[in-house]
Structure formats: structure tokens, C-alpha cells
Amino acid sequence: MQTTSSKATDAVVLSDKLSELPKAQTQPSIYKVHNQLRDVNGKAYEPDIIAIGPYHRGKDNLKMMEDYKLRYLQFLLKRKKGNVETFISAVGELEQEARSSYSEPPTSLSAPKFIEMLVLDGCFIIELVRKRHKRDPTCKNDPIFKMGWIMNSLQRDMILFENQIPFSVLCRLFDLIEGPNKHNLLIHRLLYFCENLYSGGRVKYTTGRNLQEIKHILDLIHGNWIPPVEEVCVDVDKVPKIRKWRFIHSATELTDANVAFKKVKCDNFFKVDFYGGCCGLGLWRCHL
């Protein structure tokens, strides 16, 4: 039987362990893909050309873009007549917050290396989306813009689950590059950069989310693409009602049930309606 003194000793040991736990400043928002998903198709979660953040940093097939990150930073500093020390200092203030944004903190990266990574990745993203949005004349001689496959790979890689840096870092850098309190411009450029990934064409920033709620680029795209859980719609009798999310059969199952699909114009990939014997499915309308 355990004595009172041994119980007290165990309590002290447990208390010491609890006190040694690191104090996370923010809830993790950048995770690694679960093995059950990765085992199905691991390639789907791997970047093709660029590493953003620590999870894929240093992989051989992604090293080519590291030179481009340096060149973009050099061009940015020359264009804005700035100095890299300012960026390092500003991002350094966010280091602990940024580290705790990762579910698996990059403990192998020292503070200087971690901050350097955030500056290089953040400035590259900001300069890349600026050049595409402004159609900068330098794009003519930029291999990223001259070869379509590179741009397509970059667009895909920048919205991968594991390939993210905190949005707060992008905002802090954007304050230094374009001026304070212009974050809607950053959001607009990011959405413009990713617009051809959307079904239905260009999207506008209409989610109404607070800036602090946006975790990273993927979160921005995801939150702006999916419509509200509930929205007011009008049925065939012109009576307003509340639309709620619900699961429907897959397109394969609908086809097997002799449902035919027909193209219709729609700016919302997730909008699904059924009326007048027709199933309106995103950019498609299917007829029974």
C-alpha cells in the first residue's frame, strides 16, 4: 500500500512535470497530414517545387527555389530601398508566436534560422503575388512567369496543408513593404494569384472575417471559397427559406442512378439545388 509520504512525493514530481511544459502562446494552426490520409496518396500532400515553412525545408527537389527566394528579396530591397535588418527585427518579434503556430514546432531550427526562413518565405510570397497582380515589366525576364509549369506548381504548393507560414508574419512584412493597415490589398493580391484554382472564376474577399482569424494562405482560400453554413435562398415558389448544409450522393452515384449532367453558369462550386426535376450542382445542372 502506498504511504502518505510517497503520495506526496508523486504529487511533487507530477507538479514539476506540469510546470516544465512549454507555454504555447497561440493555438497550433499548421499541422502535418495524418498518416491515414498520407497512406492513401502521399504525393498529394508533397510540394512539387517550393518549401514554405519548416516541414519540407531542405528537401533536395525543392532547393532550386531557394535561390529565387534570395533573388526576390534582393529585388524587393532594391525596389523599396530598404534593408534586411528591418525585416529580421520585425519578424523576430513574432518568433515565439510563429513557432507555436506549428503543431510540430521546428525545434531543430535556431531562432536566427527560423526568422530567416520566415523572412525569405514571406517576402517571396508578397513579391510574387505583387508581380503577378501588377503585371510587373520584370516578369518578361523572370523564369517563373515565362514557364507556365512553374507558376502552376507554385500556385498548388502555396495552398498545401503542410506548406504554410502564419498569416501574421505576412501581414507584418506587408506593413513594412507597402505601408501599414493595407492588409486588404494583401488579401486581394493573394486571392487574385489563386483565382484560377477556383471553379467559377475570380473571387472577392467577402467572408467578413477579422484579420486575426486568418491563420495562413490555405485558411484564407478555404474560408473565402466555402459559402456560409446557412444562407437565405429562394425556392421555386419564390418563398424565402434557409439553406443548410447536407450531404448528397457523389456524381458517380448520381450517374449510376441515370442522372444526366448539363453545364450551367454559377459562381459557387458548392451551390447545390434541386428544383423542377433538375439538380443544380455547382457549375453543372443535372437532369433526371
Automatic annotation (TrEMBL):
Domain of life: Eukaryota
Stored InterPro entries: DUF247_pln
Pfam families: DUF247 (PF03140)
PANTHER family reported for this sequence: BNAA09G04570D PROTEIN (PTHR31170:SF25), BNAC04G53230D PROTEIN (PTHR31170)
Protein name: Uncharacterized protein
UniProt organism field: Sesamum alatum
